[in-house]
Amino acid sequence: MHNPYLPYPVRIAMIRVETEDKNLRTFKFEFLNPGDEEKFAYLPGQFAELSVPGQGEIPIGIASSPTEKGSVLFTVNRVGQVSTFMHCMKEGDIMGLRGPLGHPYPLDTLKGKDILIIAGGFAVTTLRSTIVWMLQPENRPKYGKITFVYGARTPGLLLYKEEWSDWQKRDDIDVHVTVDREAPGWTGRVGFVPAITKEVCPPPKNTAAIICGPPVMIKFTQPVLEEAGYSTDDIIMSLENRMKCGLGICGRCNVGPEYVCKDGPVFTLTQLNQLPKEY
Amino acid sequence: MAEYTVKDKLSFLKAAAGSGRRLLAPSSKDGRVRLAEVTPDRVAFDYLNTHLSPKDAFFPQTEKMLAFHKDAAKPGAFVYQPLGLDKIQPTVVFGLRPCDARGLAVCDRVFQNDRFTDPYWKTKYEGAVKIGLACQAPGPNCFCTAVGGSPFGEDGLDVLAFTKGEGLGLKTLTPAGDEFLKGLSGLESGGAAGEMDGLKKAAESRLPGPLDLAKAQAAPVMEIYNQPHWKETADRCLNCGTCTFFCPTCHCFDIQDEENERGGVRMRNWDTCMSWLYTIHGSGHNPRPTKTERVRQRFMHKLKYIPLKQGGACGCVGCGRCVQHCPVNIDIRAVAVDMSK
Q: Of the residues B163, B187, B205, which one is the last residue of a structural domain?
């Protein structure tokens, strides 16, 4: 019988400090056992439990795209016991990976649509996965215009700089990266995500928006999209809650009758409008 | 399915204990009846229900799930391995009350949900033949009939038994129950079902009528969620978690790691949604920050969310334990009435 509590053993192949405050590190994992990578078949938007023996587990969105074979990528904010321990681990160390868990973004129903991707702070992780996936030559023709709005408080808090710098050079994605205030050396946009969204969002007809960010960003971006005429069916969000099992069993992550882990974490705004704001 | 009678309860229990399965049955210890591994002569019959719900037999209060070692000289250092799954003994559980068996069935649909199967639960739950003992004299706190159950309910059982003089009447309900009774000696065929119908009607007549849950279950989630009565119930509640501890359908757990210099284990422990720690994020944000949200969560889960997710099945089975043990007399029946106003 498959044991969904049993993590796949992985080796930390690479650690990269992502932000100037050093609170975010990206971990690249390689599976120890041949065959486990195939079993860990995922799509953008799903998450996994990062499992540190003796310390515990944390649910983290998968930052890599399944098209990036050979490894899986996660960016971890240092917050509690497990993430702090992970920030002290070294390349080569052994830990576990349990998943994939949750549902991906609705990549199939988004086919043929223009896509607006809005990210704030380090919530950009699963959206990195989505963009990398959509920009693959075999996937790119399935989608219309792709617009990416990404903001952070300061330039030093933006993740994946090399990647979005590369995307800025492409003509098949519009990238708008912004920081809250002017900063030395920053030549890009300045302003909050809702304001930039208002400026650059494509017309709502046949467009779907995926939003991930801190609650304050979502609170002010949602009205911008609604004013622009986006239907709540076309506003897609990913929730976070405290989790343990990730399997819809241990109980704690429910939002109304839905478990964020098993039934989410991806929900449309239509769905969320019918649920308590317990997230 | 088949029906049987036995003239002598003890010889039936001896046959069950001699079947090669471990016998779990109610027995008295320190003045309280609990479900435990017992010899046939110690099995209690004069109990309203076990003090605690039987969920611990399939979902222990503390359960080690995985283990790892740190010895780099040996293979598999820092790699978790499953624990205990190969040591599950085939069991026969005798004396489950129908409310509790129904509660276990509610848990089973969580532990084996539409996407995942919990092997620690499944091996124990499905590895057990579950023999219920009908409630011919329901207790003062019982209200199974108020929430769709019966003192002779069959949900979640393989066999339903009732006391018949010094013996038992038995009705099999599943192939597993059939198989088990077929292998036992001393059973006479027939003579149970007719009598059972009469006893069932008599026992049901002593219990309350159904609660009107239709409105609460038909209304949108947010309509019930935003009702004003939650704060009043929460004002009394101490968030002590007694209700969740006793409840046969409360299945929440925490997962914790423990380690020493040689290795460690990952275990799960019963948890409670009454605790503020239960939902708090690493950031300090808490989606259910006050007692009101936590109290509402428990009753919404039992009476609204579980029915929504389990095809109408109520998350409360009317065992009455939470009503009996709540230190501030919160009564789920009164809350259900408030929800349906």
A: B205
Which residue in the set B79, B263, B282 is minimally distant from A94, CB to CB?
B79
Asked if residue A168 is part of any domain, the answer here is yes
Q: B301 touching A, CB under 8 A? A: yes
Residue A201 carries which side chain, given as an amino acid letter? Answer: C
pLDDT in tens, B198-248: 999 999 999 999 998 888 889 999 999 999 999 999 999 999 999 999 999
Q: Which residues of B touch A80 (CB under 8 A)?
A: 282
To the nearest whole Å, the CA of A208 is away from the closest chain B CA by 26
Same-domain status, B177 and B218: no
What is the domain-level CATH number for residue A50? Answer: 2.40.30.10
pLDDT at B194: 87
Q: Does B278 touch chain A (CB under 8 A)?
A: yes
Quick one: CA dihedral B277, B283, B284, B290, positive or negative?
A: negative
| Domain containing residue A68 | 8-101
Co-location of B252 and B186 in the same domain? no
Instruction: Give a yes or no: residue A109 inside a domain.
Output: no
CB contacts < 8 A, A to B, total 143
Q: What is the pLDDT of residues B123-148, one digit of tens each?
A: 999 999 999 999 999 999 999 999 99
Cβ pair B282:A80 closer than 8 A:
yes
**Per the structure, how many domains does chain A have?**
3
| Average pLDDT estimate for A152-165 | 95
Concatenated DSSP letters of B14-35: HHHHTTTSEEEEEEEETTEEEE
CB B229 within 8 A of CB B33: no
Q: What is the pLDDT of residue A194?
A: 96
- CATH number of the domain that residue A219 is part of: 3.40.50.80
Cβ neighbours of A57 in B, within 8 Å: 255
Q: Are residues B166 and B248 in the same domain?
A: no
Question: Three-state SS for A203?
Answer: coil
**B16 & B156 share domain:** yes
| Structural domains in chain B (count) | 2
B264, B271, B293 ranked by CB distance to A54: nearest: B264
pLDDT at A228 over 90: yes
Closest CA to A97 of A86, A108, A106: A86
Residues of chain B with C-beta less than 8 angstroms from the C-beta of A244: 253-255, 268
pLDDT tens sequence across B21-71? 999 999 999 999 999 999 999 999 999 999 999 999 999 999 999 999 999
Buried b vs exposed e over B254-270: b needs ≥16 C-beta within 10 Å?
A: bbebeeeeebbbbbbeb
Last residue of a domain, one of B205, B233, B264: B205
Flag if B287 and A279 touch (Cβ within 8 Å).
Answer: yes
- Flag if B253 and A251 touch (Cβ within 8 Å): yes
pLDDT tens digits, A32-53: 999 999 999 999 999 999 999 9
Rounded Cα distance, B79 and A95, in Å: 7
pLDDT of residue B191: 83
- Residue written as token pair 């199974």: B144
